[in-house]
Amino acid sequence: MGTANGGSQAGPVSGTDGEAPGWPRPLYGWYVVGVLLLAYTLSFVDRMILSLLVAPIRAALDISDTAVSLLIGLAFALFYTLLGLPIAWIADRWNRRNLIVVGVALWSAMTASCGFAGSYAALFAARMGVGVGEAALSPAAYSMLSDIFPRDRLARAMAVYSIGVPLGSGVAMVLGAFVVQSVLAAPMVDLPLIGPVAAWRTIFLWVAAPGLLVCLLLLTVREPLRRGLRQADTGNRAAPGFIAHLKQQRAALGALFAGMSLIGLVMYGVIAWVPTFFARTYGMDVSQAGLWFGIIMAIGGAAGLVMGGTLADRTFARGVADAHLRVMRLSILLGGPPLLAATLMPDALLAFAMLACAFPMLTMHGVGTVALQLITPNAYRARVTALYFFVVNLTGLGFGPMLIALLTDHLFGDDAALRYSIALVTGVALPLAAILLTAGFAAFARDLGKNG
Question: What CDD domains does the annotation carry (predicted)?
């Protein structure tokens, strides 16, 4: 068995019996959060850079919006979500720091290989590889943070890591915009030992390169001691209870899963296509559109997470049992109309203004993951959370970009109609999500009482 300083662990180290070991120093703990957040941000850069390269990829490979959407969404999401479940199982039994290092190295290598893909099939396979690598990060990261921070400080640490979603998306767009702008200034670039290649292909190499730095930083992080595990809770005996739990809470869990999936469908679809929407609708340079949209996502998204969490905590403290679901519904009611309006604005400035109003409101829905923890017994939280993210990410990331592209290609049959595809998905999915969440209020409050 390895030590807390590094090597592979054959099994978990429990802090249940005897005197509990001391916690790592807070300064070191926040250093780990910073390194993991950097890895999370990089993962979004590598994940989303393709959405800024729609035009050159379509031209080079002679493909449609739907084919591009499969590269952005399904090619990545299929393996990202499917492998999240077994990788979470591995993270419970192996050295988590090393697992993350392997994941970062793999997704960086696969991102670089996107630049050398000579066909659609090769690019699709490389995007699947990016998904495989990134699937290793969050399951291991959440597990590590739980063993580094005591319960009274764990929520803050996880909140900072979770800000990597809007912050990482925004930084990806901002950094990606500068990279795209600088590299695409020349149509061809000479690479050492390779020769001249299309400029858009070198962008994948630029965004993959920081992966080496992140791997080196991760090697300065120690594998933390696993705390509070009970061997008796593992094994086949837990499976029937887990299935029974899902059946007993199917109404509340169904509302959460369905509501968040529909919100994710809209959010992932919008993030994937907004830069191209500005280019096609207003004739704006895609890198400039990505830059301003990235700033809106980074600032507005982070603010929305803080606002949503604060509002849910205060409402819940006043005795409103379904407070978190109500905040999720509120985020739709406040953020949905300006998002829909953004797609129909007569000029780019007004569209950006509407997006700036929409994103702080819409990202308040992030309290859904907190709601899930409140109604789930401790023995099942990891599995229910893994199942939750599997459904939500596969639906949102896998089908959000594709649905918008299918509407553009086959319903409207016009690239310039992208704005109406985004509007249609937003106008149908978000109201339906609000209805489903409302239908789950009573069941959630009932299950919360049973678990409390």
Answer: MFS_spinster_like
